[in-house]
Design a protein that fits this description.
Length: 270
Amino acid sequence: NNPGNGTSNDFYNEVSNVQGLINQFNSDVARISELQGKSLNAVDGTGQNLALLDDQVAQTRDLGNQIKRRIEALKRQPVPRGQEARKNQVNVVAKQFMTALQNYTQVEKEYRQKQRARVERQFKIVKPDASPDEVAAVVDNTDGAGGQIFSQALSVSTKYGQSRAAYREVQDRHEDIKKIERTLEELAQLFNDISVLVAQQDESIDYIQNTAHDIEQDASKGVEHTDKAVASARAARKKRWICFGLFILLLAIIAAVVAGVVVTNNNKRK
């Protein structure tokens, strides 16, 4: 369950393992969706199917937390020089998990909506002429208000047996909706944690890219300055040689003039 000692092979093996767990997570979500469908079609919300659903949700919750921990462990691994691509790989895996979490969240939201619709239908069995406010109160059951309204409707219903059965199912469905709400809260927290990690990773990648760009620009400027320095040095050396040549020429002229004067004086003495 550990990413290894940080070597390249260990890192990429762990990335592959985590991706395998994400695939398993998606399969578990598909199984949850299947069990939810069976629960909705059942006469009531209890029984073996509901137990299977609760167990599958718990396993998927544990798997999601495990994936999160292993992605965080991958992110904490030191990145050797020359292997900066690792950072982007962690980002890819994290985003794959975020997509899986979004899919699971959508499955749970759809299940919640169908459960609420089932509660509404059961209440209307007891009170067909229920107002929208009464229906909303029973469906949401805020502070137990829905139970009171349902109890009042039961007291005047002419379909006592059917109404009692509907009431029991509504109670079961309310429990299911509470479980869905807890699952949605857990998924939202997981998604938030991973999105923060991805944001940090993106900032790190941007920093590396910007730094590399700055280094490239600095290197280009350095080459440009070096070329200018070399050209200036060559020009300076050329000027020095020209000056030296002119100095030699001047000395030669002076020597020639002095020699001429000396010859002229000697001739006059003769």
